[in-house]
Amino acid sequence: MHKRREFIKLVGVAAGVALWNFCGLAQVQDDRPNIVLIIADDMAWDDCGAYGHPTIRTPNIDKLAAEGMRFTNAFLTASSCSPSRASIITGRYPHNTDAEQLHWPLPVEQQTFVEILKGAGYWTASAGKWHLGDAVRDRFDLVHEADVSGFQLPTGKDGSAPAMIAREKSGCERWLSTLRSRPKGKPFFLWLAALDPHRDYEKGIIANPHRPEDVVVPPYLPDVPEVRKDLALYYDEISRLDDYVGKIMDELARQGVEENTFLLFFSDNGRPFPRDKTTLYDGGIKTPWFVRWPRRVPRGSLCTQLVSSADIARTVLALAGLDAPSCFQGRDFSPLLTDPNQKIRDYVYAEDHWHDYEDLGRAVRSLRYKYIRNDYPDLPATPPADVGRSLTFAAMRRLRTQGKLNESQMACFVKPRPAEELYDTVADPHEMRNLADDPRYASVLAEHRRVLNAWSKRTAFEVPKTRTPDEFDRETGRPLPNRIRPRPSKKDFQKLLSGDSP
């Protein structure tokens, strides 16, 4: 009898299959929550109405926030697309995934939370942008990868390779059909990944485009017509993404499962503009973060505590009643859903690695302060290559020649950079005043240095012995002859750099 009880407990709680009511022979439905992650691509944390943006039209995202919990201090472990996603799905920091550089595939030996859910009876599916490589596709029951192979811009006069425009424009086209194809009677997990608002941009993608006069220009970008036009096109892509968020919310309601569906909306990294994406400033690593779960999360609630994208994996498993493996480095943030004043961490950590151009940096963020260590201070903070080809960066290069950029706007061009940066993010939310050399902040600097050093030692962060060559021109964003596509794994890439054949 004891073995029978233990078997039923294992099947009902750990494996998540239906139990039987032996009196009426009626099947009892699995009542664990459904879990849906909606991942924006390159969306800054405050570029939606829910965080007070006055002009970007995001009615569905704002509704999602109003019907659940809004987090104001959520951070990513990386400011680059694929390293961030690899970290999210493994619950590990980028340098521990062996996929810390852009386009490095996630190795097969890495454990993800998805196969644990799948093994415990969840139906698991991914739809939209993939960006994780081929080795972990089988962790999902179903993968609908957005087709980004399609339309190309004309080849440049210099023979440079064309930029790509996705055939599936937003990456969200299969979201609804994937949700509708789920098997009934078992919990499901969806990884819904957009391509919006990633570059490159097109005009006329929504019926009522944003106007340049609608734009709020961050102070570290020049307020000129080209920048306003560029930001307006970025706003349009956020609105297009917002429409798909609304469709998913409506479909969950239509299927009658919204009450017990944990829905988390966030972005993989920040705004695709200079001094944002691929940087360790908040414009690169701070993310929108909304949780809606009507059965458990109070409407209109607010959490100001620190959370990290490394926490998602452990939290998802906790919601499903499953234990997380010891290799997961994040924390379970589910206690915040009912007690948002509870603290689960004092610091969050982020890192920056090769993304089109070589770079290396680390950061630690407390509720008030940000400490950045630039491990390669001899290199300028060049934005990603697609940003390098943008209207914004072209205008900045012109204004630099004319001597019309301020110190913060020059940050992408200056070398060497400071080896250390310290910011008071309350007094200076755009992180424009480096306090690292200010003696009044010596104790704050020392504390954050100590914390970052301890994290680096604990997670075995090491500065590589060999640097990775740039694959694009830092001024124009055009491909260099040594560009490699597809990029090999970390192991094979290191062999290439050392001169050995992979």
Labels describing this entry:
Alkaline Phosphatase, subunit A, 14% strand, 502 residues, eight-stranded mixed β-sheet, four-stranded antiparallel β-sheet, alpha/beta
Describe this structure in words.
- Helix 2 (59-66) crosses helix 7 (225-254) and helix 7 (225-254) runs antiparallel to helix 11.
- The chain contains 13 helices and 16 strands.
- It has three domains: 1-30, no CATH class; 31-346, Alkaline Phosphatase, subunit A; 361-498, no CATH class.
- The protein has helices at residues 2-15, 59-66, 81-90, 94-97, 113-119, 175-180, 225-254, 282-285, 312-319, 385-388, 391-401, 442-458, 490-498; strands at 19-21, 26-28, 34-40, 69-71, 74-75, 123-128, 142-145, 188-193, 261-267, 289-292, 301-303, 307-308, 348-352, 361-365, 369-374, 420-424.
- It has 502 residues and is α/β, with parallel strands linked by helices.
- The longest helix is centred in the middle third of the chain and has 30 residues, at 225-254.
- The model is unreliable at 1-27 and 150-167 (pLDDT under 50).
- A hairpin with a 4-residue loop joins strand 1 and strand 2 (26-28).
- An eight-stranded mixed β-sheet has the order 7-6-8-3-9-10-4-11, with helices on both faces. Strands 13-14-15-16 form a four-stranded antiparallel β-sheet, covered by helices on one side.
- The protein starts with a helix and ends with a helix.
